[in-house]
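Q: I have 488 residues here and want to know how they pack in 3D. Can you give me a structure?
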Amino acid sequence: MERARTFGELKAGGYQSVSVKDELRANLICKLKRREKLFPGIVGYDETVVPQLINAILSRHNLILLGLRGQAKSRIIRQLTNLLDSQIPVIAGSEINDDPFLPISAYGRQTLELHQDSTPIAWVDRDARFVEKLATPDVTIADIIGDVDPIKAAKGGHLLSDELTIHYGLLPRANRGIFAINELPDLAGKIQVGLFNIMQEGDVQIKGYPVRLPLDVMLVFSANPEDYTARGKIISPLKDRIGAEITTHYPKEISLAVEITKQEAWLTREGLQERLWIPEFIRETVEQIAFEARDDQRIDKHSGVSQRLPITVMESVVSNAERRSLITEEQMVVPRIADIYAALPSMTGKMELEYEGEQVGAQRIAKDLIKRAAGEIFEGYFVGIDFAKTVAWFDQGNNVRLADTASVPECMLLLEAVPELIETALIPFDSKRDDAETVAACELVLEGLYAENKISRNEEGGYTAVTKARKDRRGMIYDDLTESGRYS
């Protein structure tokens, strides 16, 4: 269908303009009737966040997403553009998407008055109707609302008080679209005042000159709860004008977290994808690390532990397994527990520590999280299975070292010496698994036994017996690895 090029053609075609909130509402209703997925790629919010978003849009509310880091707030906000029409008509040359039927800028009004039905029309795509700004303390009214432009005044021969001299800020340029501000509490109070004034009354003062801008805009904000008291706050009049406060959250189940990481982690690597196989228990262990961290008293709960932690850890785990395959020239790439320990650099920077945690150190806490996470997953797979003979073999003074660079044949040779380990480790799995997968399963068992303090583990990936004193120290923050240097 050919688009109208003039205002007269637009009227003749029967086009009717609607407000952006009515547009969002109408398109949302159509998607709901067609049973379409509203937010592709957003996992775990179907019963919590999404229904609240739907209610807010149906109510034509401005909204704020309130949640800790890494909870997909920005992604949700950006996907709201999918509820906009594919294109809308504007007066050509307008900086603020003037509606041809109801222009609000001096330029739009004058152009329409001068050209009437011959007024040229431009069409704006939905993506160009989304404006996003990260709030920082240095943001000014000029950035958000606008400022007087002396150059415009000089070139056009206008007085500074003339509206034609205004250089519009981000908010007016979002007219007939969506305006999003991330980390709203970081915005200075006087800027927030300017926001709620233009939201409610539609007017603002620029350099002391009153300007009326009845903007048609959907306002969406995001904020971290800690920012209400840490770096700033949302002023009450602005908060009162936000129709819906929607709280986001981290995945509540391991299966949902695994799905998110599968979706987000960069694992489709050229030359690797066909050779890579990640055991499900490795995926679950990586996710369990984040669950353990969010419950750990040594980690700041106000900052949260982002879902980016398991994503980057999984990428590093696969990279270490890939590195091993390059060193050993093995075809299959199968990550195992040793690769998770090798991914420590992807964990330590994503945890804000409390005072107690700072005394222990991020590295030590990260290792403890891996130990506890592996213990949880081990218990789920091997509940009720007896490893008494395996533990007894270690108690006799034997040990096994599974370095993260050790090849599969090397590891199998060592594991075959441990009584009943391989046979028992394969009980929950398909017994026809190849050697690389068998090594990964055995290493999970050894790490699980270590988590239960039945054996010990050193920094080099060596598993050995644990002394009676250590067996009694189940409440330890983290077993000091071979403090005595007993393992060699």
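Q: Anything worth noting?
A: The longest strand covers residues 217-223. The chain has two domains: 7-247, 254-471.
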